[in-house]
Write a structure and sequence with these properties.
With about 300 residues, the chain is α+β, with helices and mostly antiparallel strands. The protein is built from six helices and 15 strands. The strands form three sheets. Strands 4, 5, 6, 7, 8, 9, 12, 13, 14 and 15 form a ten-stranded mixed beta sheet that branches.
Length: about 300
């Protein structure tokens, strides 16, 4: 059965540079390169013009294979989960957009999410195909995400993140740490873990840093302000878990839940982590900019 058509107006294609191989057609190469996608799905996409060359021309089923050829294709999901929470646009101008993302919504297309992503929603809402996120937060994390709206100025804003000139503040609800001296600067060496999507700590020179403060204390749970100095994958989640205060409702740290439990989103139990504030000096105007999320973490 054919997949339902997906609007190109709110999606960008993915790109594959065809690898070395024995195939005679682009179709054969795609089937071999993506074994999880059935051949009839690729046939359906080609029939609808959803597989294109570098110039955006639709490729047919008999188009000859060539090593290094750039092929654009549009990711599609037959039964994409609907995320029942809405994002907010806090600010937009000719260069920037600041969005307030809900829990559970991915920033970018990945896995089973294509249309139900912050990027796809905003592209459709604003009719701007030039939107690009300048940074990302985890799907399970809520809060602020900064987007570039203009390719001409994008590099100036991307440089802020490379040069660590964006000040980020997160909030988290975690178990109490009465024996720790807070506030504190935590320096940890982070490396890829097992399974591949996890991170872990190891002995050696630190490559990650977070400042941790306490905002509010309530019995066994405290509300923390987290200031990431570096920006490594899962940094805040792993740092708090390494102190013995894993963020509430985290399915990864300190203990990885079984696959069925972590893949079934429980909307009643969001990860208690919020990207609360972004502060920076605008590289074009020099103006000090400060944005705050309108969301709050419930106890």
């Amino acid at each position: 059965m054919s997949l339902p058509p997906v609007s190109a107006s709110c999606m960008r294609p993915s790109t594959l540079h065809l690898p070395q191989g024995p195939w005679s057609t682009v179709l054969d190469c795609l089937c071999a390169h993506f074994p999880a996608i059935p051949r009839d799905v690729w046939l359906d996409r080609m029939a609808r013009g959803r597989v294109q060359d570098a110039e955006g021309r639709a490729l047919g089923v008999g188009h000859p294979y060539r090593v290094g050829m750039r092929v654009h294709y549009f990711r599609e999901v037959a039964e994409e989960p609907l995320i029942p929470f809405r994002e907010s646009v806090l600010y937009v101008d000719e260069h920037l957009l600041v969005a307030d993302k809900p829990h559970f919504l991915p920033v970018m297309p990945a896995g089973e999410y294509v249309q139900e992503t912050l990027l796809a929603r905003l592209c459709k809402r604003l009719g701007n195909q030039d939107l690009v996120p300048l940074h990302r937060i985890d799907r399970l994390t809520a809060g602020l995400v900064l987007f570039s709206t203009n390719p001409q100025s994008r590099g100036r804003y991307q440089a802020l993140f490379r040069q660590r000139r964006i000040h980020k503040v997160y909030e988290a609800i975690c178990p109490a740490l009465p024996v720790q001296s807070l506030p504190m600067h935590l320096h940890v060496r982070m490396v890829p873990g097992e399974p591949f999507f996890l991170m872990r700590t190891e002995e050696g020179e630190a490559n990650s840093e977070t400042r941790i403060e306490v905002i509010e204390r309530r019995a066994d749970l405290w509300r923390y302000a987290l200031y990431p100095i570096t920006g490594r994958k899962h940094q805040l989640r792993l740092h708090m878990a390494s102190l013995g205060a894993g963020i509430c409702n985290d399915p990864f740290y300190p203990h990885l839940l079984e696959r069925s439990r972590r893949q079934a989103d429980d909307y009643r139990r969001p990860l208690k982590l919020l990207a609360r504030r972004l502060v920076f000096d605008d590289p074009l105007s020099g103006e000090r900019r400060s944005f705050s999320s309108g969301q709050d973490l419930d106890w």
